[in-house]
Amino acid sequence: MSTLAPAPVDFPFTVAAAVQMLRWGALPVGSPYSHKQIAEWCARFWSQYVEVDAPPDIERLLPVLTDVDAQWELFLVNTYSVEELRTGYEQVRMPIEWFEQWLRATSGENPAGRPAGRDHLLPLTTFNSR
Questions:
Q1: Label partner for 81 (CA 20 to 30 A): which of 45, 60, 74, 121?
Q2: Range of 103's domain?
């Protein structure tokens, strides 16, 4: 079953845009973007600053963006089989609570930017060694 993947999110790489993307992640029913698209946008955003210094407001946001990206990947490999992932995962949703915690982190409530309750996720190295 092959379907065309939606186009990447064309949204500016700003703090306000990141907050909006996280809000859409926390309310996926009305979101114009899937969690996959949101995670990919976060990855593109933080990768803009791999080799350059980020302004202070972006610097504070980078741990949240990298965590969204990393948790998306971990969620996929720890929740679905390779066969399931081959059929597509555009409609996969991460826990809404994670997006709520990432939103709080953008306002300084949770400086680590890491969602709680991820104990069920295995490190990527564990998955690869199966």
A1: 45
A2: 15-128
Amino acid symbol at 10: D
For residue 3, which amino acid is it?
T
Q: Report the chain's C-alpha Rg in angstroms.
A: 15
Place of tokens 């996720």: 121
Degrees (nearest 5) of the Cα angle 13, 14, 16? 135
Question: How far is CA 27 from each of CA 20, 80, 97, 120, 130, rounded to the nearest angstrom?
Answer: 11, 22, 10, 23, 34
Number of domains in the chain: 1
pLDDT average, residue stretch 103-114: 75
pLDDT of residue 128: 41
Query: Quick check: 43 and 21 in contact, CB under 8 A?
Result: no
Does residue 5 fall inside a structural domain? no
Q: Beta-carbon neighbour count of residue 103 at 10 Å?
A: 19
Q: Is the pTM of this model over 0.85?
A: no
